[in-house]
Amino acid sequence: MSTTPALPPAREVARKVVPGLLVFVGLVAGLGALFRDPILAFAEGVVQDFGRVGVFWGCLLADALPAVGAQPVLFLGYTGGVPFVELLLLAAGAGVGAAALLWAIGRVLARLQRVRAWLDRTGLGPWLRHDAARTVFWSAVLPFPFAATALAAGAAGAPLLPVLLGSTGRAVKALLNLTLIAIGWSAAG
Questions:
Q1: pTM here?
Q2: What span, in angstroms and rounded, lies between the C-alpha atoms of 107 and 100?
């Protein structure tokens, strides 16, 4: 008997994901159509005041907090004039930085016997020690809590390098988000 859960069919996944992506594009287009000038003024001010370093740290903090996404930071960076590719590289680097930070915090938490026991009892510890790169990658791309996965990987004793390699999935997610932001913003005129 396999302990790996069955993956849902691609059609079912698409049926659930595509409407959410369309809503995201529609939201950006609506914001662009209704509030273009104030958004541009605010975003340009943010980028001017905090620069690329501010965008990087904003993305890193968003990635390091569970259930927070970097989309608002990417939106501000894009509408504030940071070039697409540069913004993608900043977000990807911030994702790797967040993974390293969370992994290190997880290593500290691993000193607690309760944490180690829970990870081993649930099977998450052995899973992450064996397959950290793939697990962190998919949590970085999908709407699964990336922060929780990177933290758990550190607590489970997964090596840092596979966690960092897996965190490059944040670049894939940033590319998708930036593309949707660009489409929505351009659609608004």
A1: 0.82
A2: 11
